[in-house]
Amino acid sequence: MTLARTTSVAVLGVDGQLVEIQADLADGLPGVTMIGLPDAALQEARDRIRAAIVNSGETWPTRRMTLALLPATLPKRGSMFDVALAVGVLAAAGAVPADRLDDVVLLGELGLDGQLRSTRGVLPAVIAAARTGVRRVVVPAANLAEATLVPGLDVRGVADLADLLAFLRGDPSRTVSRPAARPRPERPGPDLRDVVGQAVGRRAVEVAAAGGHHLLFTGPPGSGKTMLAERLAGVLPPLGVDEALEVTAVHSVAGLLAADAPLVRRPPYQAPHHSASAAALVGGGSRQARPGAASLSHHGILFLDEAPEFQAGVLDALRQPLESGEVAIARSGGVARYPARFQLVMAANPCPCAAPAGEAECQCTSTARRRYIGRISGPLLDRMDMQVQLEPVAPGDLLDRLDAAEPSAAVAARVAAARALAADRLRGTGWRINADVPGPALRSRWRLPAAVTAAADARLDRGELSARGYDRVLRVAWSVSDLAGRTGPTATDVAEAVALRSHWSTP
Amino acid sequence: VGRVKGAIGRFGEEVAARHLAGAGLRIVDRNWRCAEGELDIVADDGGTLVFCEVKTRSGAGFGDPAEAVTAAKSARIRRLGLRWLAAHGLGWRDLRFDVVTVVRRPDADPLVRHLRDAF
Asked: Average pLDDT over chain A, rounded to whole?
C-alpha cells in the first residue's frame, strides 16, 4: 500500500467542510511535500507528525512522501489535520489497515510526544461530519464532551496516537466514548432583588426580556443602568436545544468552552469595554476572521456600558448584524460567517459631566450635551426598541426598601409565560419571539385597530417616530400584552410601548 | 576524526560500486574531483549516464542517510555532473542522478539502498 486516504474537516466561520487527505509514498529522496493550500501552522504539521509518529514507537517511512489535502482550492489552516495526516502516513506505509479508515473522521492536533491536544472548532467540525453522513469520529479526549453534543454519532476520544493506532488496528479498549459526567452547579448571576427602586427600569428589563427587544438606558451615574442591564440575561429563559448548539459552536471556534461542561445552556452575556475595536465587537483578524463579541452573544445579551464612549465607527459596525442577524467577514482565507442574533443593551450618561443628582445639577452646555448624545448615531438609536430614561434613586428607596424588591426568579417566570404565549401565536412562522416578527407581518396579519394604535399613529404623524420606529413600538406593545396574558395589545399597551421609547431628552 | 570518516566513506563507496556493478551498471569514473567538489561514482546504465552520490552511515542513529542529501547538495551534484561532461568533452546525453545509501551493521552485511532518479 503506497497510497492512503483519511478524512478530516476544515472549519471556516462556524461551517465545516470535509477534507480528504491523501498520502502517497514514492521512491526517491526521503522528504515530505504538502500540497492543498496549507497555512504556516499546517506546514509545521510535517515536523509535528514525524516526531509524534517516532515517539509513539512507529517507524517514519524514509521515502518520498506527498501529502495532499483535497479539495485543493480550499485554503486550510491550523493544526486540526495533524491526526489525519499522521494516520495517512502510517496507512500509506502499511502500518494501519486502510479499510478501517473508511467512514471515520479524524480531528486533533498532535504534540511531539504523540499526545492528541485539544483544538478549537471541534463542535462545528463534528456537526459538519454528521451532516455529510459520516458515522464515526475520533477527537482528542479533551474535546470529547464537546463532540458528543452531536447526537447519532460514534464519537471516540483518545489520549495519544498510540491509543488511536490500537483502535484502528481493532482494539477499542483504549478509547473513551462517554465523557466523564461532571455536572457543574450553575452559578447564580446577579439578581434583580439587589436593584433598589427604579420601577420603570425593572419594567423595561421585563418587557425587553419577554420580546427580545433592544434596550437603551440613560440616566445619571448610580441610577442603576449597569445593574439592570447585567440582570437582564438572568431573566431570559434557558436556550433551546438548537440554540444551545449554535451558541456552543461559536464559542468552540473562539476556544472558550469548558472541557467538562461544554454546552452553553444559558443565554450568553458579553460586555466589551468601550475601548473595544470594531474587530473585537463584530469579529475580525488577519487571513481568517474570528468571532467578536456580537457573535459570542448570539442568542444572548450584548451590553455596551458607556455607549457614547465607544468610537463612532465601532458602534455603527453593529448596524449590519442588527439587521441580518449574522456577520460576514471576507478575508483572503475565505468569507467567514458567524451568527450574531443578539439583544443589544446600551447604557449612557445623559451628558459628559454626569452629575449624580440628575439634570438639575448638570453644568454642561446644551452644545456639549447634544454632541455627547450625538455620538450614538441616529440610525443606531432608531434601532433601539426601547429607550428608557432612569431618574436618580430617591434616598428613601435606597435606605428603607431593601427587602421589597422582587427577585429575578419571579420576573423570569412571567417572562417565560409571555414567551410561551408569543411562541404559540407565532407557531408555524419560523419566528420565536416578538423581536423576530418583520414589520409587514405586524401591519397585515396582526394588524391592530386604529383605536388601539392611536398613540403611535399620532407620533408617526408628527414625525417623532420613523417607520422603523413605529414597527418597533408595535413589537414592544405585543410583548407588553403577552406579559399581561392578553390575546392582543390594548390602547394602554401601545401607549406604554410609546412611553418606553421616549427619546432621551434633547436639551 | 577525519580519518575515520574518510575510511567509512571509502568503505561505503566500495560497497556501492560493487552493488551498482552487480545491478548491471558499468562504472565509468570514481572520486572525480574538481574545484567545486567530488563526484563519488559515475556509471553507465545502458546508455544513460548516471551520477551517483553515496551516503554511508555506521548506524541508524542519525536517521536515513539519504536525508543528508539536501536541496543545496543535490544542486551541487547537478553542477558537478555538467562539469564532468565538459571536462571529458562529451556533449548532451541522457543523464540521471542516483543516491546509494549504505548502512553498516555490526554483525551483518551492510544494508544498501539504490534510489534511482533521486533528484
From this structure: 88
Contacts of A51 in chain B (CB under 8 A): none
Question: Which of B115, B117, B119 to mutate to probe the A interface, most A CBs <10 Å?
Answer: B115
Grid cell, residue A370, equals 447634544
Residue A371 to residues A313, A352, A365, A507: CA-CA distances in angstroms?
16, 9, 10, 11
Say what the pLDDT of residue A505 is: 41
**Does A57 touch chain B if contact means CB atoms closer than 8 Å?**
no
Contact between chains at B115 and A27 (C-beta distance less than 8 A): yes
User: Three cell numbers at B20?
Assistant: 551498482
Question: Residue A170 CB: number of other CB atoms within 10 A?
Answer: 8
Interface with A, mutate which of B52, B62, B64, B100 (most A CBs under 10 A): B64
Euclidean distance between CA atoms A148 and A129, whole angstroms = 12
CB–CB of B69 and A27 under 8 A? no
Cα distance between residue A269 and residue A209, in whole Å: 13
Task: Read off the pLDDT of residues A83-95 as tens digits, 9 standing for 90 and up.
Answer: 999 999 999 999 9
pLDDT tens, position by position, B42-94: 999 988 999 999 998 887 666 788 888 888 888 999 999 999 999 998 877 88
Return the DSSP state at A217: E
B103 CB neighbours in chain A (<8 A) are: none
Q: From the CB of residue B35, how many other CB atoms can be counted at a distance below 10 Å?
A: 5
ipTM: 0.71
Question: Tens of pLDDT along A360-401?
Answer: 777 888 888 888 888 888 889 889 999 998 888 776 666 665
